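agent: user wants the structure for Neurotransmitter-gated ion-channel ligand-binding domain-containing protein from Cloeon dipterum. delegating to structure tool.
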Amino acid sequence: MLFGLLAPLLLFATAAIAQPSSCPPMTAEEAANMSTSELLLKLTATCRYDKWQRPQSEQKDQPIKVHAKVHVYFLGAIEAQSLKFTAHILLMFRWRDPRLAIPSGSGLDGRVGSSMGGQGLLLRDKIWVPHVYLSNERESVVMGAERKDVRITLHPDGRVEQALRMKVTLYCLMNLQKFPFDQQQCPLMLESWTYNSSELQLQWESTRPVTVNSELLLTEYRLIDTRTTSTEDTEPLLTAAEPTHPRLRPNDSAIVMELEDEEDRALEENEGLRANFSRLEIRFHLAREVGHYVMDYFMPSILLVAMSWVSFWLDPNAIPGRTTLGTSTMLTFITLTRNTGSALPKVSYIKATEVWFIVCTGFIFGSLLEFAFVNTIWRRK
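agent: tool returned. relaying tokens verbatim.
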């Protein structure tokens, strides 16, 4: 038992002794004579590179700047029922790590090395990378058949570029008051997870930060434009836990008041334990195509209302025919409305289709009332 506890400590001590505390500086001649693999191993050696340490910015005491760029391959189904949409994107980040710079005079131009797939994941595990997440994410996955589509590129001046091809499912809160003549703005929000805005700052690329596939076609919506913003989000660093008091008797009012005062003081202290985290946001401005609803809902409902008016030209004595015509049009219209609204969530406000439903129902019900009124007068005569 004692050996099992001491074994990890012995291994760690052995590794620390075997590994030198510092590496000799790399010269330009050595860098020029190394292969790409040897150069990457030399740069990321644990004796000179600590992947857990954030790179220093160009200006002292300034946050490191991470530039982002997004290419949208495909926008999938935008589901109003579950308030979500899917997208296939290429997410690209760029930052500068001076520890990975090559000495000048080595003759290396362009990129030092580029690793993709499994090698890209291995290189990403050896260097520092920013932890950026999608704050409105429902689920996401890095795409790839045999290997994950991850690319890491190093440049001689220390610039690092990371690219990931991802399939993401994101939440999109929709306002359906004008449905189906509505327009939605679905966001894609990137936010720093580990470092606050005083340590890491996300920025969009200066030229074309968001690009969209020129052949992109949507089934139910039309993409009007995309807008990018850069903000800061305030997140709590510490949240107050729920108080767990012992079982108190009803006459312990003084103890209860004292505990409540302590809780209030704790909440006031925790209000200061907050930090601002850098956030980038893309808003996809989408307009719904109404052709489907015009042909499948509005035109049939207009025809049903007009059909209910046919009873005005029938003989007042044709009671079975007029009754059947009025009730059948009413039931058919209700079924049509239920089928159209089944794909929408239940909301507390009135939608445009519901206003249309009330008006059409009033016309059809009015034709039934007209028949009852005319039939009553006809029988009295």
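agent: one observation worth passing along. The radius of gyration is 33 Å.
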